[in-house]
Design a protein that fits this description.
about 190 residues; alpha+beta; 8 strands
Length: about 190
């Protein structure tokens, strides 16, 4: 009887110890690729000029995204479709790979990626549809550029940061990929409450 109680106590202790260990043999999620997009369309009918009135549908902007997730590595390729004279043009807006080490708040990116200010500013207002923000539209900053960057989210996204060393010409510039000079940009955002 004592032998049985001793074995039962040892078995219960071993089971409790094993239950507290993290499961090591879990399978990682399988790689995935998603295709998404967004488009901004408009219809114009102008009554002012009866001989040469406008009656047309138009694509003001459209983005086609191919997003990949491969464990700790993520990829993004985005095509930017825009009006170009009487037709539509397209160009790459984003084409980057990102690496996030397990358990790390930092993500390392390389390629044609978002710059620190404009993507953050556009995310503040979910319903922005009219076009690029003022600093992008007027050529002061670009929403995308080629370079190396580090993103960080700390304290459950109460502290957010991005640092990037980039080409400096912007993805929409005629000089892209530009000259020998490079730019560095950084942003640190603090939230009081979540």
């Amino acid at each position: 009887m004592i032998r049985f109680a001793y074995r039962t106590a040892l078995g219960s202790a071993a089971a409790a110890a094993l239950a507290t260990l993290p499961l090591v043999a879990q399978n990682p999620p399988p790689p995935s690729v998603r295709i998404t997009g967004v488009s901004y369309l408009q219809y114009l009918y102008q009554l002012k000029d009866t001989t040469n009135h406008q009656n047309e549908f138009d694509v003001t902007r459209a983005y086609i995204n191919v997003l990949g997730s491969f464990g700790q590595v993520a990829t993004r390729v985005t095509a930017d479709v825009f009006p170009s004279g009487n037709s539509l043009g397209y160009r790459l807006k984003y084409a980057f790979a990102a690496y996030t080490p397990t358990g790390s708040p930092l993500t390392y990116r390389f390629g044609l990626m978002t710059t620190p200010w404009i993507d953050w500013e556009e995310a503040l207002w979910d319903y922005r549809m009219q076009g690029p923000v003022a600093v992008d539209r007027n050529g002061y900053m670009s929403s995308s550029d080629i370079g190396l960057g580090i993103d960080g989210n700390f304290n459950q996204e109460l502290v957010d940061m991005q640092v990037i060393a980039m080409d400096g010409e912007g993805y929409g510039s005629a000089a892209f990929p530009g000259d020998q000079r490079k730019d560095v940009a950084a942003r640190l955002s603090l939230r009081v409450v979540k």
